[in-house]
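Before a colleague's protein record goes any further, I have to sign it off. What it holds is a sequence and that sequence's fold in token form. Would you go through it and say whether the fold makes sense for this chain? The record follows directly below this note.
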Amino acid sequence: MISRIIVCGCLTVLCWPTFAQQLNCSAIVDDKQRLGCFDSMAKSPQKPMAQKKVTPKDDPVLANAKIAISKKLKDPNSATFGMMIRAMRPNVRGEPTDTICGYVNAKNSYGGYTGEKPFVYFVQDGSANIASGGQDPTDAMVVGNFCK
């Protein structure tokens, strides 16, 4: 009995990434299953895409990224940014997506700095996600999928 459970579990783990790639993850209604689908697709092997370190002199998009990230913070004026890398990264459908991944540190509502939090900024639509463990738990998943 136990050996059957282990074998079934192993087969599920081995087959799940392939199965998830065939699904349209966005069409899955259940939140946990949809997130699991996206996670398994992100773990599948993908060819590397170009990336480069970003500095304000090289890339004017950097200022837009800082503004978008700062707007999501409790104290936008306290934001300090660490390393930022602009790269074309694959989205869940494998399509190249222009992103900036980096780190931000800012003050919380008590006035203390929270420590560096990873973020991703999407150049095309100007949206941003910070993996802060805050209001939206999907932010951490999005950052994790794009900024490895």
Residues 2-42 form one domain.
